[in-house]
Automatic annotation (TrEMBL):
PANTHER family cross-referenced by the UniProt entry: BCS1 AAA-TYPE ATPASE
SUPFAM superfamilies: P-loop containing nucleoside triphosphate hydrolases
Sequence similarity: Belongs to the AAA ATPase family. BCS1 subfamily.
Organism: Oryza nivara (Indian wild rice)
Any one GO MF annotation of this record: ATP hydrolysis activity
Entry keyword annotation includes Lipid metabolism: no
Biased composition (Basic and acidic residues): 168-185
Domain named AAA+ ATPase: residues: 278-444
Record protein name field: AAA+ ATPase domain-containing protein
Keywords for the protein's UniProt record, in alphabetical order: ATP-binding, Magnesium, Nucleotide-binding
GO BP annotations listed: response to stress
Named cofactor requirement(s): Mg(2+)
Region (Disordered): 161-185, 365-384
SMART domains: AAA
């Protein structure tokens, strides 16, 4: 009986009070109303999104996406400060194009993943050449409001395409009119990054983008070859197929040339720091038919530089030579073939002036006043004695290579070719004048394998061992081997013909050596008598 009051008290304590039950009911009702409201908002959001897709133009939806991204960026600014660089397409109120914008767009075309974005645009970009010609390339571009990311040296950069303005606002689109009631939209690219990486962005990343875009444009452009006629250059499209993959030469020598060209392209600041003109000189020497001209074409295709083939027989005075050379643009290759045939045995001595030289010197009277000391112009040549000093000489050419005129341009390659290096003036062979001497020799085994692969796509053949042995004992040029391989499209027939050619060349060499030995024996007997 004593436990009954305790049980009743416990039951009374565990039962909820009327006030607590009412409060619990209000909380439950509020929760139900919140769920209903959220469901309604979600339904309205889905409906609004569907209506926006149907009714709103693409431009407004792109602006909305950009606005949302902007708000998200601002909300996260408290965590890490961001900087933004705006790269506008046009400068000076629309009067000039921003080269950085075109470079960035060309660079981003290689970074955009078409599968990651729902909307993309295609554009044709015009690449202006140094000689005034143009080439075109198709680019993949971001739509206004869309973004893509790029990582450079571990730093993430975000690119966003922007388009502002446009529409009928009563303002003129630019000087000269057109449609007075329409203003063209202003395009720009925004580059954003963490503030702590500002130096990396401006000092390293932006120059990297420019350099990469420049390389892309060089790869896409149509190469041209120029020839000189008296006082000017005349250009033609250049489609030589030679490349470093197809040229027949020893692999180690080929690699050393490619590595040297790569170093040259990357050393602009290095040349400036050491006080030298940004240029590179190559002397290609060897017997005729060893591929010197093909190597020049391969260098042009590799660098994507235009070729300037200088015929010195068309140049008779130093002033004409200077005018031609300073008119060459940057990123070009100057070629002088058979340099040993261009000057006399004593090229730096005075020679009798010719009538043609007198006429050409008269054409190069650049003075704008009657004074003989006109600043900025070559001295007038009024007397034959003066013209005698201006006659084309090797010294005039060397002055452009590494003299005072060597700084008239940059990023240039100078190539001299000769079949007879021993005939060259010692001034051309002075250390440091031509940076790299390349001997183009007779066809060896590795060069032959390249030719066999070029012509027949074969890497091995039953006749290869005999061909290798024969090549080691005779002197044949790659041009001679190519001629034999061209005689048949069938690899077996062509290689058999080459073997017979090499055997005959071996027999001829043996006969010549035997004749030399006989002559020596006769001479020795005569001396003994």
């Amino acid at each position: 009986m004593d436990h009954l009051p305790l049980a009743a008290a416990a039951a009374a304590a565990s039962a909820p009070s009327p006030a607590a039950g009412a409060q619990h009911g209000r909380v439950l009702d509020a929760y139900k109303k919140a769920l209903a409201t959220a469901a309604s908002v979600a339904a309205y959001a889905v409906l609004a999104r569907s209506m926006a897709r149907e009714l709103l133009p693409d431009e407004l939806r792109a602006a909305a996406r950009w606005g949302a991204a902007f708000v998200r960026a601002r909300l996260g600014a408290s965590e890490k400060e961001r900087h933004t660089v705006v790269i506008r397409r046009q400068l000076d109120g629309g009067y000039s194009e921003n080269q950085l914008f075109e470079a960035a767009r060309a660079y981003l075309a290689t970074k955009i993943d078409p599968r990651a974005l729902r909307r993309l645009s295609l554009a044709r970009s015009r690449c202006k050449e140094a000689d005034g010609s143009s080439s075109w390339t198709t680019l993949l571009c971001l739509e206004p409001g869309d973004s893509t990311t790029d990582v450079f040296d571990g730093v993430e950069f975000r690119w966003t395409s922007m388009e502002t303005g446009g529409g009928d606002d009563g303002k003129r689109g630019g000087k000269g009119g057109g449609d007075r009631g329409h203003r063209a939209p202003r395009e720009s690219l925004e580059l954003s990054f963490d503030a702590e990486h500002t130096d990396t962005a401006l000092e390293r990343y932006v120059p990297f983008v420019m350099a990469t875009a420049e390389q892309l444009q060089r790869r896409e452009r149509v190469l041209r070859i120029f020839m000189n006629e008296v006082r000017s250059w005349h250009g033609f499209n250049h489609h030589h197929p030679a490349t470093f993959d197809t040229i027949a030469m020893e692999p180690d020598l080929k690699k050393s040339i490619v590595d040297d060209l790569d170093r040259f392209l990357k050393r602009k600041e290095y040349y400036r720091r050491i006080g030298k003109a940004w240029k590179r000189g190559y002397l290609l020497h060897g017997p005729p038919g060893t591929g010197k001209s093909s190597l020049v074409a391969a260098m042009a295709n590799y660098l994507r530089f235009n070729l300037y083939d200088l015929d010195l027989s068309e140049v008779r005075v130093n002033a004409a030579l200077q005018r031609l050379l300073i008119s060459m643009p940057n990123k070009s290759i100057l070629v002088i073939e058979d340099i040993d045939c261009c000057f006399d045995a004593n090229p730096r001595e005075a020679h009798k002036i010719t009538t043609a030289a007198l006429d050409q010197a008269e054409d190069f009277d650049f003075s704008s006043s009657d004074s003989d000391d006109a600043v900025g112009a070559p001295p007038r040549a009024r007397r034959a004695g003066d013209l005698q000093q201006q006659k084309l000489t090797l010294s005039g050419l060397l002055n452009f290579i590494d003299g005072l005129w060597s700084t008239s341009g940059e990023e240039r390659v100078i190539v001299f070719t000769t079949n007879y290096k021993e005939r060259l003036d010692p001034a051309l062979l002075r250390p440091g004048r031509m940076d790299m001497h390349v001997y183009m020799g007779y066809c060896g085994w590795e060069a032959f394998k390249t030719l066999a692969h070029n012509y027949f796509l074969v890497g091995d053949h039953p006749l290869f061992p005999e061909i290798r042995q024969l090549l080691a004992g005779v002197e044949v040029t790659p041009a001679e081997v190519s001629e034999m391989l061209l005689r048949s499209e069938d690899a077996d027939a062509a290689l058999r013909g080459l073997v017979e050619f090499l055997r005959e060349r071996t027999r001829r060499r043996a006969r010549q050596e035997a004749a030399i030995d006989d002559n020596q024996v006769v001479a020795e007997k005569g001396n003994a008598a």
